[in-house]
Design a protein that fits this description.
eight-stranded mixed sheet, alpha+beta, globular, 15 strands, 2 domains
Length: 366
């Protein structure tokens, strides 16, 4: 089976500032240093005459966020979630309801959710094909999501790879809001022109030179604002699938299994299984350098159960899967999120019901 390495492993190979960062003395390898290197080296890659143009600024800002995210990913265990196709398809048609960022349980501090290019989505005004999303909770309490993928057109130099990612945040004040509403509000806020915001547009208190500098800075971020506006639909779909995956894993942990990624070379696999300790880690490190890694595979139980149930009777429409807060505990005083799978209405063979995992297989609640 032909297989391309997951985005995190490709990203560090085609960005020379990662090599430069690793060449620094260990005591100097702070995240702040990496972010600054990403900013300045990306701008330098465009050449001096292009530094004041909007595209270099956008690429540099994207790279700054990405470098921090990728560093956290490699420092935090290199956890990759791979969602099986039928479960991913179910998530695409699953409403998040009133689930909030506070409802998301983070099994790891930072991880990468592989969505797959088969979704056919692009972002950054069509510059990149979506492959997956990094998720982490920042030290300030924000939930940070970084979309990642492959450029549609081959870049003329590595700095243009800044368009391979796009980062947005759920601010602290938005963590208790429904996920899709919070994501849309953030993107709309970031796409606003400062000239249209009364409290920012009044520059009468500044000297002429300062006003010109401020206006020039605003102008340099015009493209970045346009991309926030253009990315609304793809970001919301990413939030839908990734949040569904996190909610599902927290409710049905038995359907998450440690596994080798598709196409993992047999030689590496045998050596890893025969060894332990430092020898095993060295072999795994070599495999990762070649673009292969261990993953958390989500949805195999779901797929087996769906196949065992067989096809459903054709019907006029399908009621979407969705998350619902269900009463539990003493006298129903507590609430927990449960996933109600899709149900065929008028002619379907299955009534609406939540999934449960029993003895390693998906069954349904009575």
């Amino acid at each position: 089976m032909l297989h391309a390495p997951y985005f995190p492993y490709r990203a560090i190979k085609n960005r020379p500032y990662f090599d430069a960062f690793m060449a620094l003395p260990k005591e100097d390898r702070g995240w702040d240093a990496l972010v600054q290197m990403a900013l300045f080296r990306t701008l330098d890659s465009f050449g001096r005459e292009h530094k004041k143009e909007q595209r270099p600024t956008t690429c540099a800002m994207n790279e700054a966020w990405l470098s921090d995210t990728v560093a956290r990913f490699f420092d935090g265990g290199q956890v990759v979630f791979h969602i099986e196709p039928r479960l991913k398809e179910a998530f695409q048609a699953s409403d998040l309801g009133d689930a909030t960022a506070e409802d998301l349980k983070f099994p790891f501090d930072v991880f990468y959710v592989h969505l797959g290019a088969d979704l056919g989505m692009t972002f950054n005004a069509g510059a990149a094909r979506l492959e997956g999303v990094f998720i982490n909770r920042s030290q300030e309490g924000q939930v940070v999501m970084t979309l990642a993928g492959e450029l549609v057109d081959e870049p003329s130099h590595w700095g243009e790879r800044g368009l391979e990612s796009f980062t947005f945040h759920f601010a602290k004040e938005d963590l208790d809001k429904p996920l899709l509403l919070a994501a849309r509000a953030h993107l709309e806020k970031k796409s606003q022109d400062p000239n249209d915001i009364p409290e920012l547009a009044d520059l009468t208190g500044f000297a002429e030179a300062e006003r010109n500098d401020i206006l020039e800075t605003w102008k340099s971020h015009d493209e970045e604002r346009r991309m926030h506006a253009a990315n609304v639909d793809v970001v919301l779909e990413c939030v839908r699938i990734a949040a569904n995956a996190l909610l599902y894993v927290s409710q049905y942990p038995e359907d998450m299994a440690s596994d080798y990624q598709d196409g993992f070379p047999a030689g590496f696999r045998e050596k890893i299984e025969r060894s332990d300790g430092k020898t095993r880690e060295r072999t795994l490190s070599k495999a990762r350098s070649a673009g292969y890694t261990l993953i958390k595979r989500v949805g195999q139980v779901f797929e087996r159960a769906e196949s065992a149930e067989g096809g459903e009777t054709p019907s006029p429409h399908l009621r979407r899967a969705h998350w619902r807060r269900q009463a539990h505990g003493p006298r129903g005083s507590l609430r927990k999120l449960i996933w109600i799978r899709a149900v065929r209405v008028l002619g379907g063979t299955h009534r609406e019901r939540p999934y449960l995992i029993v003895d390693g297989a998906v069954s349904t609640a009575a």
